Amino acid sequence: MDNQVVLNALAKIPELKIIKHLKSDLFNAECTTKKQHHRRKNIVGDIRLSGSSFILYNNGVWIPRKRLGINTLDELLEWVRRDIEYLSR
Asked: Which residues, including other chains, have CB under 8 Å from residue 64's CB and lie 6 or more apart?
């Protein structure tokens, strides 16, 4: 899964905003509909354009997508939709 394709797919989700890190070439996907009681705002973290790895939040920690068993774009988008719902309630 190419990260450029991932960023393009995430950019099409209206509840997300793609944010570039200030001091690196990494990107995050930030949830724009999150409720204030959630301390976390990012759904996908550390996306590098020249790679295929990134991290996702699971049970209080950030974990690489491959350790979570996410290998396709459809699996990622399902994960993102569930996380948006969680952060937005």
From this structure: 53, 54, 55, 56
Residues spanned by the domain of 66 = 3-88
Q: At what angle do helices 73-88 and 3-11 cross, to 10 degrees?
A: 40
Q: What DSSP designation does 39 have?
A: S
Cα distance between residue 30 and residue 88, in whole Å: 12
Nearest to 41 by CA among 65, 57, 54: 57
Percent pLDDT > 90 in the chain is 84
**pTM for the model:** 0.90
**Number of domains comprising the chain:** 1
pLDDT at residue 65 greater than cutoff 90:
yes
Q: Give me 80's structure tokens.
A: 């993102």
Q: Measured between alpha carbons, how far is 57 from 79 in angstroms, rounded to an integer?
A: 10
